[in-house]
Amino acid sequence: MRFVITYLIGLVFGVGIAISGMANPAKVLNFFDIAGSWDPSLAFVMGGALITTLIGYRLVFGRSAPMFDTRFHLPTGRSIDLRLVGGSAVFGIGWGIAGFCPGGALPALGTGRWEVFAFVGAVIAGILLARFVQSLGAPAAGASA
Amino acid sequence: METDFTPFASLTGGILIGLAATLLMASLGRIMGATGILTGLIRPASADEFKWRAALLAGMVSGPVVVLLLTGQMPAVEVPVSVPMLVVGGMIVGLGVTFGGGCTSGHGVCGMARLSPRSIVATVTFMIFTAVTVFVLRHVVGV
User: Nearest CA of chain A to the CA of B137: how many Å?
Assistant: First the structure.
C-alpha cells in the first residue's frame, strides 16, 4: 500500500515535470537566455510549484507526523558555508551547460530518449566522484535535500 | 532554438510538482528532491531507504508515458546542446548537487517552501550561475 501511494506520488511529479517543460532542455535554457530567445514559461513552473508546496507544507506540518512514518525527515544542516554556495554555483554551471537538472531528467527517462540516459549517467558519475572526494577529506557532508 | 511560451501548461505542471512534494511529505515525511532520491538509490543506507525511492522513481518515469496515453503525444525533449556538453554538464551537475546538498526540486521547491535560509541561498546562487553560464555560452563563446 505504502509503495503504491509512493509510486502514484512519483507519477504526479513525473506528469507535472512532463507537461511543465522542465524535461525539455531547449525550454529550460531559453528561460535563462533573457538576452536571446527568452521563454519565461519556467517562472510559472517554479511559481506554481513553490506556492502549492508552501501552502501544502503548512497543512502537513500542522500534523505531528506523516501518515507512514513516526517523524518528518527534514534536513538538519543550518550553516551557510562555502560548500553550499560553491556546490550550488557548480550545479548552476552544469545546468547551464546541459539544460537538464536532475528533477527534470529523472521523469524524462520515461521518454526513452538516449540523451536523457547519457545525462543521468553523467550525473551519477559526478555524484560518485563527489562522494569519493568527500571521503578523502573532511567529515561526511550533511543530508542531501 | 525558439520555444513557445506555455504559461498555462507550465503553471499546471508546477502545481502538480508542488502537489507531489506536499503528498510525499504528508505520507512518508520526505523531501521531494531529485538529488536525494538519486543519491539514495546509488548508495542506499538500507533496503527500505532504497525501496521507497525506487517506487517514487518508477512513478516519475511513468509520467511521460501517461502524458502520451492521455494526449497522444510524448512530451518534447529537445536537446540544443552537443553530446560532450550533455555529458560534461551532467558530471558537473552531479558534483555540484552533492556538495550543494540539493538541486531545483530539493532546494528550489521544497527548501524554499520551508523558508530554509540554506535553500534560499542555494537557489539564488544556482539560478544566477545558470543564467551567467547560458549567457556566456550563447552570447560570448557562441555555441
Answer: 8
